[in-house]
Amino acid sequence: MAKKLAVQPSLHKVIMVGSGGVGKSALTLQFMYDEFVEDYEPTKADSYRKKILLDGEDVQIDILDTAGQEDYAAIRDNYFRSGEGFLCIFSITEDESFQATQEFREQILRVKNDENIPFLLVGNKCDLEDKRKVSLQEANDRAKQWGVPYVETSAKTREHVDKVFYDLMREIRARKMDENKTNNGRGKDKSKKKKHCCLFMCC
Amino acid sequence: MLFVVSKVYKMEFSKEPNFDMLTAKDFTPEKYVKKLSQNYVGGSELQNLRRKIKSLSEETSSNLKKNVYENYVQFIETAKEISHLESEMYQLSYLLSEQKSLLSALSTTSILEDMQPINIDRDNKLNEKDFEEENKQKLAAILEKVEGCKELLEVPGRTFLYEGDLLEIDPTENTSLKTVHVYLFTDGFMITNRNSNSRGLMKYVYEIMYDLSSLAVVNVRDLGNVKHAFKLLIFPDTRVFQCSSNSNKKEWLDKFDQAKKTRLAQEQQKRESITEKSPSRSASIESPTYNPFEEDMGTIHPEWFLDIPEELDVCVAQRHFEEALSLLQKAKDYINQTASSSEKHDHVLIDIQRKVEQRQNSLTEVLMKELEVNPDKSLQGGLRAARRAVRLLNQLGRETQSCNLFLKLCSSMLRTQCKRVKREGSTTTYIRHLSSVVFTNMCHMSDEFLRAFPDSPACASAYVVWASNELLQFTTHLIKQVFMPQTSLATITECIILVRTQCERLYGYGIDLCYQLDGALRSSLMKALRDARDKLIDSIKLRALDDKWIPMNLHSKSSLGRCIQEHAQMGLNLESYVSGDTWLQLTASTLSFTKMFLSLLNDCMKLKTTELMYTIDETLYNVFEAQIRHNENALRTELNQEQRTFLTKNAEFLLVNLIEVAQKKYKENVGYECQTLQKLRKEYVALQKGVSPTSRSTKTKYSSEFI
């Protein structure tokens, strides 16, 4: 891994999560190709890769645009496991999508088993201020409770689109550097748990 | 002699002896010797020749030896070779038989698979049978082409969907790795590599099979210069594959989608067929507000809950049944609570619930084993040892089973206890001991039973049935032991009374088995009474034969006094019959009958039950009548006035005094006077006046009316 890192620009894996129709693909496409796609077509699971300059450093971003609807829990787990950072999107014009973020958050924490996973709460469609259903206060409160940043974006006007991706990548990068310094605690945790299980088996 | 002959023929021999000559076909030793003796003359020459022949023979024999040795070595080598070949043949035949069994196993698997229901989505395209056949052939073809995928056929219902060549790409460096040949089935995705040393049909080597339900397929829209690619996420692997064209990629993604949908439909169907609560999943696919996480909400269970099946195993293995039970209860409560609070389908919950149910069943089994009657198991602990298992089983809601087992245990214990009672001494002693053992145990068991199953009507009725069965067994045994021809009525009575009093002990537990006991004993008792009657009548007849009709001489005042006292105790006043110092104006026969009749009456009164009254009355009547008849007959033949008066006095004593006493006793026990005795008194009233009834012959015998 280390050898590869030296040759290739480092790769940050970002995952877009959120209910159907909140604009995950629209945000991704805006970020990737600077274009806004008006027609809605449900995504299954798309991945994108782009070389960008992050604070003067060449990096690659790998975006996994997930389906709002996936039938197998195990498959969803596999999506989430592959991610290093998450953009949890909801539409400020739809309260249900905001409520759903709670469950996405819990699922991600369960799969990653990590409270401090790079994570951004994103309220999309902020250009549709007149149709707002989720107040800024509400969203800020939830983000505060989770200890994550909250950003409002518009895929249509490209407002804050780059910001959310770059912010997330900075968090991922910072976290990777942390992990390189101190050994990953999670692995230890896991082995401990396994040992515990084994003990059970023995008796 | 030979020497002389050879000398003679020496001259004619010119040739040197050699092998060719000696081994020639027409060689004969006689001729040769003749020739030699003709040719050679002189001892030295012959000697020379002889030496030569000798050396020849020596050479030959050494050659022979050498040859034999060589042949022997070759023989050993050949034998070795043969045994080697033999083992090789064995190996071959073993391999062949293995191959054969493998083939037959394969053929049965494919036959089984024929019966499996298949992919419903494609039914509209092909009729089911054709499709099944096609699928089977396709799978067989894959089996032939791909090395090491024997388990391909082991999954029932697996259907082939799509195959093709793809180029695998390194997920981080975007460089191509290798060409793979992949197969998509309804339940999985199989990757195979080109077989480098392929000879013949096996073109590919099996690499891996991914389960479709955990395979995340990602459409790679943009990966630099890599086009037409898709990605598979299988934690912790990520694999990228490049298709030949965009349409090819689209085809692949569509097929994956189709496979997943088919799988879902199948699973749903399966779930419905098990009539489990259908998950909300299928409904949510259509609804736009479907939240993919809903069903996973319940999966965050406390750790103790997830470990419960193992914990239960441990507890059962260590025989900590109480602990196991409380764990079970805890788990059930949790399941109920979770199930009611969220209507979602939770796989973990259901899985654990099923496991917990299994553990519960095994716990029940273990407990039932505890209670089972086993000849090897000691019953030392008695019922108290069973308490724990019974209590736990009751708590598990298995009252019926535990009740059954408990009662079986009781039966076997009772039997063991009864076997220990030895038949020693008199019947009465034995019966006393036995009935005491039986009923004490039954009392004890009732006690234990009431403690174990306090409020269960079903168990109570089972207990009553059990008790009645046990009693039946006991009475059968009792009848065999007690009702024998040589047993006297008095002994029988004593035994029966003993058993009855024992049986009454069960009243305290609310079980009245006396009626059943009487019922079971009735016919035997009736027979016993009739036997006693016949015996008494016989003895009366015997006594009548040597009745001299003279007053009884008791020889001494004291014995007279004793006699009077004895009868006074029975309620009979004999004072008026005393004459002289030692004489009683009654016959010995009358007095012994009195004694006998009263003891019979006594026994009868002890045995009396409503059902037996008729037999008792009849017995009393018949016995009494036999004695009276004897009196009557004597009266008829006696002409002496003085004797007649004496006879009448005896008859009067029997008909008045004895019947009075008997009636009194009868009334005391039964509540009314004995009608048959009354009738008897009336019939023979004339006898008291010394008149022998003339109508005697016309009067029908009493007993015949009854019988």
TrEMBL record, chain A:
Highest taxon in the source lineage: Eukaryota
TM stretches of this protein: none
Membrane topology term: Lipid-anchor
Key words of the record: Cell membrane, GTP-binding, Hydrolase, Lipoprotein, Membrane, Methylation, Nucleotide-binding, Prenylation
GO cellular component terms attached to this protein's record: plasma membrane
PROSITE patterns: RAB, RAS, RHO
Compartmental location: Cell membrane
Any GO BP: signal transduction
E.C. numbers: 3.6.5.2
Family of the protein in this entry: Belongs to the small GTPase superfamily. Ras family.
Protein name: small monomeric GTPase
NCBIfam families per record: small_GTP (TIGR00231)
SMART domains for the chain: RAB, RAN, RAS, RHO
Any one GO molecular function term: G protein activity
Major enzyme class: hydrolase
UniProtKB/TrEMBL annotation, chain B:
Entries under Gene3D superfamilies matching the protein: Exo84p, C-terminal helical domain (1.20.58.1220), Exo84p, N-terminal helical domain (1.20.58.1210), Pleckstrin-homology domain (PH domain)/Phosphotyrosine-binding domain (PTB) (2.30.29.30)
Compartments (UniProt record): Cell projection, Growth cone; Cytoplasm, Perinuclear region
Organism: Psylliodes chrysocephalus
Domain of life: Eukaryota
Biased composition (Polar residues): 280-290
Similarity annotation: Belongs to the EXO84 family.
Function recorded in the entry: Component of the exocyst complex involved in the docking of exocytic vesicles with fusion sites on the plasma membrane.
The keyword Protein transport appears for this protein: yes
Disordered: region residues: 264-292
Transport is among the record's keywords: yes
InterPro entries, alphabetized: Cullin_repeat-like_dom_sf, Exo84, Exo84_C, Exo84_C_1, Exo84_C_2, PH-like_dom_sf, PH_domain
Domain PH: 159-261
GO biological process: exocytosis; Golgi to plasma membrane transport; protein transport
Protein name: Exocyst complex component 8
GO cellular component terms, semicolon-separated: exocyst; growth cone; perinuclear region of cytoplasm
Keywords: Exocytosis, Protein transport, Transport
Basic and acidic residues: compositionally biased ranges: 268-279
